[in-house]
Design brief:
heterodimer, A: alpha/beta, Amidase signature (AS) enzymes, 11 strands, B: 95 residues, Histone, subunit A, 3 helices, 4% strand, flat
Chain lengths: 493, 95
Amino acid sequence: MINASLKQLSALLAQRKISSVELTQLHLDRIARLNPGLNAFVTVDAARSLAQARAADARIAAGAARPLTGIPVALKDIFCAQGWRTTCGSQMLANFVSPYDAHVVERLNAAGAVMLGKTNMDEFAMGSSTETCFWGPVRNPWDPARVPGGSSGGSAAAVAARMAPMAIGTDTGGSIRQPAALTGICGLKPTYGVVSRYGMVAFASSLDQGGPMAKSAEDLALMLNVMACFDARDSTSLERPAEDYTRGLAAPLAGDRAAPLGGVRIGVPKEYFGAGLGSDVGAAVEAALAQFEKLGAKRVAISLPNSALSVPAYYVIAPAEASSNLSRFDGVRYGYRAPDYADLLDMYRKSRAQGFGAEVKRRILIGTYVLSHGYYDAYYLKAQKIRRLIAQDFAAAYAQCDLILGPTSPSVAFALGAKASDPVEMYLNDIYTVSANLAGLPAMSIPCGFGEGGMPVGLQLTGNYFAEANMLGAAHQYQLATDWHTRQPGGVE
Amino acid sequence: MSLSLQEVRRVALLARIEITDREAQAAQVQLNEIFKLIEQMQSVDTEGIVPMAHAQDVVQRLREDRVTETDQHALYQSVAPQVENGLYLVPKVIE
């Protein structure tokens, strides 16, 4: 049951072989057993979840079920859900109970999915290891001495340890894809604007995008069908006709049964296979490329010449936007307020000094500095110009190929604490993922083997704008031919 | 470039974050390491490149000018640190 796909779960629910209450209870039991060791969930409310499950069962009985009805979902604690504590991994919001639902949560509720709980994350999504959380670090189900990646590390660990059949995350610079890679699951960051940011605590608004995390490309497609929708309350939500993201799964893109990916051109950027890439990760990704070729895809050598500048540009743009977004946390309308202060300014300064953790403060300081008088042109404007160059690199590449394939992360999961004291080394984990956010392109990570210490390796597929269905289709064909995505960590049976 | 201790303190003040001397010294070291990474941006010529603020070239939508929100101030203030008579309380700013 815990390894069933969403489609299988939906069929079992429809045939009444299992009820949503039973399915929810099964996962709540697993959380009770496994979460103390992994710390993936920060809030669980069994009574609330089971009430939703009962409603889902009634809906199934009434013949009004939709594909996700009755299936439990774990929410990254960045998504507001009415009545649920929403902390964003921060002391600043440790007692914040959301008075409203995020758009994505509304959509999942309307689909009949069951909220299973809120998952741990790097504070305000700022991190690549899920170690900067106020609630303590998340551990990787494949090896509890290692990190699960971040910032959506709780959601990733929840799916990897089969504590949830599906989870949602957010991705500002790789926060869905990198933890998916490091925990051996699948995760997709949609084209910017496809999933509404309403009710998602803002980090860097021009980069933030919510997306699905699950065990297979097929599961991601079913989830994205629910999550993607125009929403007038997000001023950057794109107004476009609804898409069926499962449409690429059934029929091969262009080829035939023997070569289902025939005609698909896969671009391999030379910059993604150079210095800095772990040889174990490189070997697994090369083997996956060979598998894609076996399925009929054509390998094309491409170049993304400004790749190396993506991390420097990102660490100007994201902190700049964060410093502005996080100015709302001032101890007045919601969130933490320092117990003692002299006057208003002192109240702001103390509340923010005490309520934010070290990494969040660091990024606010960077952001404030690059936006301050005299430095704006040299940093912020320069970074925005480089952002344009990076987007142009992709545009040129997509004249030669349909999808871009490379590693998601330069290494497999690293040890807890290994990079915690060196921000720059931590930031370089994002080397292959941040470009998609800067350009606004859809990108996903799927498991493609194992590396050092038997830890999972993820490959990244990046598509052109709105190419999600094609990406999911290609990933699905790969997963029909391989079984990396079915592997499950030992010790969490 | 590198940030002086005084600049770190000034930025912290602008950001409304109280910072101790020890924290300022630690932040100075870390920020300067981070800015070494950021300085790599200067290696590329961006003359004439139009800055990209946003991933999609879309125009800001306008909505009809009418009230769409209902009064939920009691609900929204239920999560505030200090409220009285529907007002957010802060330390006195006018003598």
